[in-house]
Design a protein that fits this description.
The chain is 74% helix and 0% strand. By secondary structure, it is mostly helical. It has one domain. The longest helix is centred in the last third of the chain and has 36 residues. The chain is elongated and about 55 Å long. It starts with 14 loop residues before the first helix and ends with a helix.
């Protein structure tokens, strides 16, 4: 039996997609209307989404830094 990664789709998301879904995950967690197991699943997805957003932001920062260095 193979376990499929439920967060595999996150690697292909744009920054905006990841950010928007992260906001939905946070709203669901804040409502507190899901089971503990569902909360854990949402938390893990939220962590993966936040990491994806950070990857995009870090990449953007590196590109900006490189552009600034080229102009000097």
């Amino acid at each position: 039996m193979t376990d499929k990664n439920p967060n595999a789709d996150i690697a292909e998301m744009s920054y905006e997609q990841a950010r928007d879904e992260l906001a939905k995950v946070l709203a669901s967690l804040e409502q507190g209307s899901v089971t503990l197991e569902e909360s854990m699943t949402l938390w893990e997805r939220g962590e993966a989404l936040a990491k994806r957003c950070e990857e995009w932001l870090s990449g953007a920062r590196a590109r900006l830094d490189a552009a600034i260095k080229e102009k000097k």
